[in-house]
Design goal:
about 200 residues; mainly alpha
């Protein structure tokens, strides 16, 4: 199923990671001062609480070439660490410290800073058509993937139904407003390098 469905919950997973980190005991150096902050928002004021089942709102920023290149370069070190994060419960403080130091190694001020950049890249990537490599919006991408799933002869009926249910919901959802339009050009320019990192498996 992953061959067709681009993970539209990239920002949600990153936000969950940040939320888990913020939940560390107060004697952890990384956790100090984070308990009252919204996930992936660093020192910004707390955002309104998200509705149940929804990811917190992304803190939108104007991306730079350096930030995008940093995410691409950091992947070889960040991915093995991210894959060790527990799906639930508190992350290992040592692992969290490794993530923090790795983010700084690649030019980010902190892990929160890295997460914010990835969130903003993910917002654009979710709306880029993998064939034309143009930004068309999340709904248009979902509709194209619906056609691909429907035409797939190898997918089981159960997986196909689940995929179509998810994609139909995504197709009905309004596209997020991308405040910084320059982010679209920057992400599209680096699409081929970013797709394996953030875009998921492409067909």
């Amino acid at each position: 199923m992953r061959e067709f469905i681009r993970p539209v919950a990239v920002t949600f997973s990153i936000a969950c990671l940040a939320a888990s980190i913020a939940a560390l005991p107060t004697d952890s150096a990384l956790a100090q001062g984070k308990q009252q902050m919204a996930p992936a928002q660093g020192k910004q004021q707390m955002a309104p609480p998200a509705a149940a089942g929804q990811a917190p709102a992304v803190k939108q920023i104007a991306l730079t070439d350096k930030q995008v290149e940093g995410v691409i370069s950091a992947d070889k070190d960040m991915y093995p660490l991210m894959s060790k994060m527990p799906k639930s419960g508190k992350p290992d403080p040592k692992l969290t410290a490794q993530l923090e130091s790795t983010a700084k190694k690649f030019g980010f001020a902190s892990l929160d800073d890295y997460n914010t950049v990835v969130d903003n890249i993910g917002m654009v990537m979710a709306g880029v058509d993998s064939t034309s490599k143009k930004y068309v919006g999340n709904a248009a991408v979902a509709k194209a993937q619906i056609a691909e799933v429907q035409a797939d002869k190898k997918m089981s009926a159960k997986d196909k139904k689940q995929a179509l249910d998810d994609l139909n919901q995504a197709a009905k959802a309004p596209d997020p407003t991308i405040d910084n339009k320059g982010n679209i050009d920057l992400v599209v320019k680096n699409y081929d390098k970013l797709a394996p990192i953030i875009g998921g498996d492409q067909n």
